[in-house]
Amino acid sequence: MSFPKDFLWGGAVAANQSEGAYNVDGKGLSSADMLPAAKHGVARTATDKIEKDLFYPYQEAIDFYHHYKEDIKLFAEMGFKSFRTSINWTRIFPTGMEETPNEAGLQFYEDLFSECKKYNIEPIVTLSHYDTPYYLVEHYNGWAGRELVDLFAKYSETVFSRYKNLVKYWLTFNEINCMGILPYVAGGVKHSNKQIQAQAAHHQFVASAKAVKIGHEINPDFQIGMMLADLLTYPYSCNPNDVLESLHKTHDYYFYSDVQCRGYYPSYQLKKYEKENIKIVMEPEDEKILLEGKVDFLALSYYMSITAAADKTVGEVADGGNLMDRGLKNPYLESNDWGWQIDPVGLRISLNYLYDRYQIPLMIVENGLGAYDKIEEDGSIQDDYRINYLTQHITEMEKAINEDGVDLIAYTPWGCIDIVSAGTGEMEKRYGFIYVDRNNIGEGTLKRMKKKSFDWYKNVIQNNGL
């Protein structure tokens, strides 16, 4: 059995992790530009100004800004039907406050999307992917400030209007449910507590809903979705208390998609806010805006599952984890170099859960294996571990579609070309089918090299998953 004939095979990156050129052609500073590099597994905090003795990996990244034609040609060689990327808000409005947009930034993305269309590659474009104008971080504490709702609406209207004939698929916020875990990364919120995080999330909900409405007015054919960091949570045992704990964890992650897909706050979240004495400040029209701005589809990232127990003294804490949670070690699963537990069947389970919950099309816009890649003496990069990981996950996707009836329309593996890791700021935590010669301290030629997985994925697309 194969995938639907119009299935959108592709790959994914983010502007802030790939473009570099942080001070080129009028671009302003973003929240990501202020994050210095960190050692493996060490959390990073933003600086208040650029320090001479620190290395900021996002500022140059892999210089996709100047290499995009070369890179898209390689994507086309693999046979991509789609390419997920993002627009850096500060290329369009350098501080977020300008009356008129920066034409050089608008032209760059017009050229980028046109280059994709030249090869019949459908852009899937995220409006806000872990970068907030740093001016808004300084003056409004990022998305904690209500002011950002209208500023984002203006930004959205600007890019929707400019690219209405080039882009069909849009995402509003990347992994919006990271606001409760990493508020600076997810929304430029430097000064934070649970109340501030909840209010900032509400502002993003309203901004997303406004963007959906604006986009549909500009082009009724737009498909505008939300994006969830999916972290499937198993109970540590069949003890009912463990099952209940896993349900509560699931609510923590899925409440964000409940709001964006259903158009209102779920009762379990309102009750939780009541218990925690969190009071969401809403404008009179907010509930109406949320209901009218429901998304057309749900996109998700999936790398791993976690395990939860009611008794915090049991089990072994997992060695690593993605940006959301670490959880307990699952004895039935293997781990990668960073301690992420590999669970292909969990992807099938998640797809079923989400499709049953919302009954709207799904996209997998991030999935992949971060690993140390070695260049052999003959110049080859034998990344069979990546091929194995992706093969297992694609197999479970096919089962979800053909055996379970899930409406899955796209698959864009993360970091289709090596980029800076959002988790640690490393380059050497590599995901791509294409190797980029750059190390953790910014050294290297930026030369692009095909890995073994390049031809493997090309074959997958040519045979539509068979």
TrEMBL record:
Could you tell me the Gene Ontology terms of the biological process aspect for this record?
A: carbohydrate catabolic process
InterPro entries in UniProt: GH, GH_1_N_CS, Glyco_hydro_1
Q: Which domain of life is it from?
A: Bacteria
Q: Which PANTHER family match?
A: 6-PHOSPHO-BETA-GLUCOSIDASE ASCB-RELATED, GLYCOSYL HYDROLASE
Q: The organism's lineage?
A: Bacteria, Bacillati, Bacillota, Bacilli, Lactobacillales
This protein's UniProt keywords: Glycosidase, Hydrolase
A Gene Ontology molecular function term for this protein is: beta-glucosidase activity
Entry's Gene Ontology cellular component terms: cytosol
Q: What is this protein called?
A: 6-phospho-beta-glucosidase
Question: Which family does the record assign?
Answer: Belongs to the glycosyl hydrolase 1 family.
